[in-house]
Amino acid sequence: MRLVFLFATLSTALAFAPPLHSHYTPPLTTALRLASPDNNDPQQPPSRSRFAGMQRDPTAQELAIMDDMITKLSNAKPYELPNAVSRAIRVVSTPRFFLRIAERADKATDPSEKAKLSALADNLVTTIQAVVSMTEENLDERAKDVEKMVKAASEPESGEFLVPLSRERVDAMRDVLEGLDEEDLNEGFLSTIDAWMNKAHQDGMDGMVTIMQKALQIYAGTAISRARIHLQANVGAALSGEDQAAADAVVADSSSELNNGPAAELLERLLRVDTDDWDAEIRKGVSDGAEDVVTKDALVKEVQRTMEGVILGLENGSMAQRVQAEYLRELVTRIEAI
Fold it and tell me: What is the pTM of this model?
């Protein structure tokens, strides 16, 4: 078995590597207590999820994201902090984030800036405690949602998890996710998947890690597709002079045609298929210059427009932004490799 790390931050989580070939039937509970198989290499430490972000020093880009969040939070009104913190709880609650606040406070020459950063650190401690308390019930509900997806990955008759997952099991997982309320596919949902995946890594359950990775891939494709529909509906309403209610009606009508050409239609198809089928679907839909067929350049530009219109609109540093951005980056890599 092997896991291929394609990017430094999220490829372990999204796992676009070749699937693992194994099968097992671990006991499934809400807490996902997994039985550990024999470790073929006792000298090899178990892999860990990289969402924790504490296994290495932050890059310049990650520091820039933290600085941007610190600036926004320090200028936010007190009543705005809970929502802001809850959207990026995995980042702002880390020791590295508080260390960055201290570093900036030490470097600040303006007394008022120093006081503002010091107050932010104090306010964050209180706010994080409150947010964690308020979200415990929400996280319990999200755990149930994740468990539904995991159960959908098991074989209906035997209850076994056969990895790589069959098309039917992937479709069953997708049906479960698409049946969840859009607002429930939040940071709590992603944090639960990450926690379960981390547990599977620690226990050496590579097959379960693959299932969690597939859940993230399905989430990313579905969330991006929904966001594209919302974005196109809002732009269309603005250009036609209609109000928000008209845009919401278009979004609610699943039969509405919002695509803006062959490249957009092909991208939508790729967002809705298993990532294992991407190469075949791209080859089918892409041609180098043939008429009435999407070119690679056109498809890449459509993905880039989606990055700009959807991903950049998400909370900086949030798991939603990171997962969806990695998903689209991998898609661009696949397109360019064809």
Answer: 0.64
